[in-house]
Amino acid sequence: MNIAKIETYPRERFHIFAYCDNEGYSEIDRLVEECDNSQSKSIEKLAATIERVALHGPKSIAGPRCHQIDGEIFQIRADHLRVFWFYDEGNIIICTHGFIKRCKKTPKNEIKKANRIMRKYFESKKRGTLEVKEERDE
Hints:
Blueprint: E1 2-5, E2 15-20, H1 27-34, H2 40-56, E3 66-70, E4 73-78, E5 81-88, E6 92-100, H3 108-127, E7 131-133
Parallel strand pairs: 1-7, 2-6
Antiparallel strand pairs: 1-2, 3-4, 4-5, 5-6
């Protein structure tokens, strides 16, 4: 399994990584590509929220913008954009994937996907097969 550092911020308290496919392409990058020009403000809000989490921690984000969604899975939201994530030790946050929420309830398949990625992450870490890229390919 591969993960990549999302961004490095001066004085960051939390280190945020994203799950990547075998080619090193993250699900967060896929979400951004899926969005059209009308969603650019939402992407900016999402990026600002992720930066705030890195600098000040998830608890610095008020209420529904950053909260627990299922078990150990949390979400960051900006308008209709969602990013699921979980904690690892040492102030590490792993973003599993993002999606555009198109209905009132969070789709169960998205929650299952986040849990599946989390299990895969911890299994890879335990086996010593987790690959970490400190720099994202832009």
